[in-house]
Design brief:
two-stranded antiparallel ribbon
């Protein structure tokens, strides 16, 4: 009984300290709504977090945007060598695919739709080529000269004077130009279609290689462009995102139960430590009371 007399004080202090801190932690979240008695709100209702959720949301948004997700932090992360190389690798992989497949992938077109569009492009290009060709100046100049040279020294030279050769060459040029205008697209289209099919079956990397642009050059260009974009536009992106408002709105949209779960997910161990410290402090104070 004498031992119980000595340990009762520390044990009671430990129990009081434990439950005091346990209640204090719980009062952060409970009660979740204010309690009124005879029209008067009871003190400490609702709990600290339900009552101050809007303030907590605003503060969290300011902390994230002002200290955690700053321009410098985001720029440093985005310009990390690993991210740059991943983006460059992605571009290189895309360039190694067939041109027609990559176009369909980027545009979301079906194979049938792509084939129809390609036929339309072939027809348009062929028509533009035919309409852009004018053979009359060449026929007038070179045709008349050709007739004069080949008629020279023959009996035809008597009839093919310079004037007649020029007139004949102009007539031939006009007739040929009319044929090109009416049927030139038909003649050109098979060639255009063959060239487009040839390009379609190749990879973008192969086409660039024909221009003397290798994959290493492409990689350097992609990384350089990426760095310029990040350095020049990251501040604008952050302003558009408005992270403080996003965080604040997200927390405000959460229920008190969700906020409680979030806090416990981050600080469960720390909150339990506070409760345990209450028991320890109560026990120590009980021991001190014995000596004092």
């Amino acid at each position: 009984m004498e031992i119980l007399h000595y340990i009762a004080g520390p044990l009671i202090g430990a129990v009081i300290g434990y439950f005091t801190n346990y209640i204090a932690v719980k009062m952060l979240f409970y009660p979740r709504r204010e309690i009124r008695v005879f029209g008067h709100r009871l003190p400490f209702t609702p709990g600290a977090i339900p009552k101050g959720k809007a303030r907590l949301a605003h503060a969290a948004g300011q902390v994230v945007s002002g200290s955690l997700m700053t321009k410098e932090v985001l720029t440093q992360r985005l310009l990390d060598g690993a991210i740059e190389n991943e983006i460059a690798d992605l571009v290189i992989r895309q360039l190694r695919g067939r041109v027609d497949e990559e176009i369909r992938l980027l545009s979301g077109m079906s194979e049938e739709t792509y084939r129809e569009r390609k036929e339309q492009v072939c027809a348009l290009v062929s028509k533009e080529i035919a309409q852009s060709v004018d053979v009359r100046p060449v026929i007038r100049e070179k045709g008349a000269q050709y007739l004069m040279e080949h008629a020279h020294g023959t009996v035809l030279a008597v009839f093919l004077t310079e004037k007649r050769c020029a007139s004949l060459a102009e007539s031939i040029g006009n007739e040929l130009q009319m044929q090109i205008s009416e049927h030139g697209a038909e003649y050109v289209r098979p060639v255009v279609s063959e060239k487009i099919d040839s390009i379609d079956s190749q990879t973008a990397s192969a086409l660039l290689a024909q221009l003397g642009i290798g994959e290493n050059t492409v990689r350097s260009a992609v990384i350089g462009a990426y760095r310029r974009i990040v350095e020049e536009h990251v501040e604008t992106v952050l302003a558009r995102l408005d992270i403080a408002t996003v965080v604040s709105d997200k927390i405000n949209a959460m229920s008190v139960e969700e906020v409680e779960g979030l806090v416990f997910a981050m600080m469960k161990k720390e909150l339990n430590t506070i409760v345990s410290l209450g028991a320890l402090i109560g026990f120590v104070l009980g021991l001190l009371n014995l000596f004092l």
